Amino acid sequence: MSRPRYGWSDRNRDRKHKLPRGRAYSVSDNDVTIGDGTVLKVAHYAPVGVPRGTLVAMTPYGRMGTMVRGTYGLYAAQGFNVVIASLRGTFGSGGRFDPMFRDAEDYRDVIAWMRAQSWYTGSFATFGASYLGWVQWALLTQPQPDHKAAIIVVGPHDFKGFHWGTGTFTSSLPMWAAILDAQEKSVMRVIGYALRKGEPIYRLLRKAPVAEAIYSALSDQKGWLEDRITHEVDDPYWAPLDLSTVLDRVTIPVLISSGWQDIFLDQSVEQYARLRGRGVDAALTVGPWEHTKASGGPMLVKEAFEWIGSHLTGDSNPRRERVHLHVTGADEWRNLDAWPPAVHSRRLHLTRDGLADSVSEGDVSFPFDPENPPTFPGGPLLIGGGYADDTVVGDRQDVFAVSTPALDRDLEIHGKVAVVLDHSAEHPDSNIFVRLSEIDERGRSRNVAQGVRRVYADGVVQIELTPIAHRFTAGHRIRIAVAGGAYPHFPSSPGTGENPALAAGRVANRHTIRLSGSYVSLPVSEP
Known about the structure:
Layout: H1 8-16, E1 25-33, E2 39-47, E3 53-59, H2 66-77, E4 80-86, H3 103-115, E5 124-129, H4 131-139, E6 147-153, H5 159-164, H6 172-183, H7 187-195, H8 199-202, H9 210-217, H10 222-230, E7 254-261, H11 265-277, E8 282-290, H12 298-313, E9 323-327, E10 332-336, E11 344-350, E12 355-356, E13 363-368, E14 399-403, E15 411-415, E16 418-425, E17 430-439, E18 445-455, E19 459-464, E20 468-472, E21 477-483, E22 509-525
Parallel strand pairs: 3-4, 3-5, 5-6, 6-7, 7-8, 8-9
Antiparallel strand pairs: 1-2, 2-4, 9-10, 11-12, 11-22, 13-22, 14-21, 15-20, 15-22, 16-19, 16-22, 17-18, 17-21
Helix pairs in contact: 1-2, 3-4, 6-7, 9-10
């Protein structure tokens, strides 16, 4: 156990987050033998004096050291026992790393060990972002009587839907594997991925077969990666990684946080809606963030302490508004009792010349070269995402981009924009990518939402874009861009019906949109 301390970095961090001056705390590392005999490493951050409560997390990203002390020490300095367990096969824990499959039982075994410790306070809350959110949903599949609250930040409950739900797999999978591969070898490599916006890994998607390029670059991760890549969405392999039914069983208070450009935004919104639909004490915060920015910051820390105070320690008032979200475009935060608010649907039809209120006849076509897919900057990416200038996308010959005339008044959209396309392709196995953007008075475009669907036959397809709360400003234009691919968000469609990661060859394609049956449906909220 380390000597208790409350140093300069702790004081500085508390000032940054506008927290009271904290306490000294110590850190000990423990070997915990779980049910099958595997030994997990579990850190205990112990505050000096009587603890206010106990917080628990399970992580693949490390539990001790300078990089993570800033997160876990923050709560220990405010008087909480903090228990951080390392997943199997990570940071000294025994066993083989096979993410997601054993988390629920391992988490319960760690909690059983915690209950036997003299310092345990009798109840606990769980917390954490991204994978640390997933393991909370896994724990909640079998509710624990002393589990009083959860704080789940950008945390998925369904990895099957995330990886394969659109029909093609996401670039977040190899990017995440690269981070895991580097984190215990070279922190500088992880930093390099961030500085280069993931490009060293994303460019592997341009190779064929994609899977072989990924395995070659990340050979130490091949075991579990190969399983995720070769088993497609309808394979029973994925059943344990879809925890959707947990949303029908959770009863404890859950604070859910996400970002409008986060990779798991759809699932966070679904989690809140289903919990509130059952009357569960749940709250939702959504900011103008991508995945890494949505995982922390002063606002989320403040809300986390308020949630812990009202549901674990009882020394804070309950959150008054269920929903706290940032309306992009308007650049304002709002507190709401529910979201989305009442809306009405406005339909804009695709024409050769723009988005219009009336139906247009005819059709348009555009090519797709799988070796040179259009690049769509920004959007929901694990690294390198967020809001970006995507003006150049509209100039490409392989992108069909149309916009409205300049708006005569502000137009506020809340919920999911739906794009309906009467589509055909020379090779019916194809991807259809749609992005919604806003063009300002100077002609610069900025992404707002997007969606993708892999199709195998000609016909009408509806693509729901990622949820938004956005105000399109008077004088600006709404743009829709349609393409047969979107680098670096996912690999090119092979056009052959094969798994896009395993196909050795890919064929060029041509897409056709019949305009009379193609339109955009906007959920408009009136002021």
